[in-house]
Amino acid sequence: MIKNNIENTKKDIITEEGEIRNNINHLQDNTISQKTSYLKGFGQHLIAIAILVFVFYGGVAWGKHLTKPAIADSSVADFVQRLSNPKDIFASDPEANKPDKLDFNIFWDVWKKVNNNYVSQDATKDTKKRVYGAIKGMVASLGDPYSVFFDPDETKDFTTELDGKFTGIGAELGVRDGILTVIAPIEGMPAEKAGLLAGDKVIKVNDELTNDMTIEDAVKKIRGEKGTEVTLTVLHKNAKETSEIKIIRDEIDIKSVTYEKKEGDVGYIRIKGFMDDTDEEFDKVVSQVLADKVKGLIVDVRSNPGGNLQTAINIISKFVPKGEVILWERDRKGNEKDYRAVDGQELKNLPVVVLIDGGSASASEILAGALRDDRHSPLIGTKSFGKGSVQSLEPIRGGSSLKVTIAKWLTPSKQSIHEVGIEPTIKVELSLDDIKNKNDKQLKRAVEEIKKQIKE
Asked: What is the pLDDT of residues 186-197, one digit of tens each?
């Protein structure tokens, strides 16, 4: 529920729900505002037409190039640049990016009717906000909760979240069966302390129903200043009535990897997220594991909403032989690309069991699927969330960005993850009483299983 700067040289960023976590460099914040103020009167109408054409035609053109490694297609960048002179948009090849049988006049008709009839004239003056709204609507029409357009302010917020440091409640949200759902509350954060659970259906944020909210809308309403309160109305799994949970917002600074040595020469690694610092933190843990000379490992990715793909690959590579397939990526055309283990392998000879639950998503599911398929490691707990799609984060001129789904993940044995999840090999459920009383039956079972493997 690794910080690589993204430069304007168009370097591809692939994330998964959660999510690749990299910084987005400033991308000329004044582009759209300059274009809007450039012309007045009739000229202002022309620029409005041009921008709306960009929203729809540019979006379609972008979709044709989603699988290419460029961070932003050059033809789209050129298109945006030509907005400074609207007539240039149509000068070379006006039919090049035009969808078949699209009557664009209806959109311009609505634009003009809003200008002429809407009761609040002040609201109609913010043309940039209206254009952003049109783009958001276009992306939302895909019906994919993980494909989102971020305006400049939202892009900054998203970038801050990638660092693992922000102010809020400390929970990852997703959509399950069309309902806003808690993927995972982060251990030790306000949401978990207040009693929010993985799988909770979020019915209201404060007094607002969430049925028409996107994930990003909900996140904006849930976040706020440190020390302030937000109330979530949730439906716990198997509960018949909703519960109100009051949460005091705080600074969220996540330590992504923790380790302890348990009795019987068993090492326990908890990965809370695949974030910017996770590679470095995991390397420290590996050194400690080797120094402790443990004979078996428990890897816990419960309530881990995922994150950076490359981080997941680097961590999985510690456990499997170099060159072993870790996952498959299947694009919109059915083409498949494999991702293989890189250098590492320090832990490949240690027996491993993996803990998963309904809060294990995205990169967590990749790790669980890889260790199950490549190492035959037992998975203990409950079925994972089922977030197995690939998002590409595309910078847009003016400081905006587009997060769009471009592919889906498959395990090494080519089992689909998305909207299916991964079933545990040993199912162990936790009741509400178990959670409240901190009776971790899943971890206890994992210790039993790893000890069996050590003896063998």
From this structure: 888 999 999 999
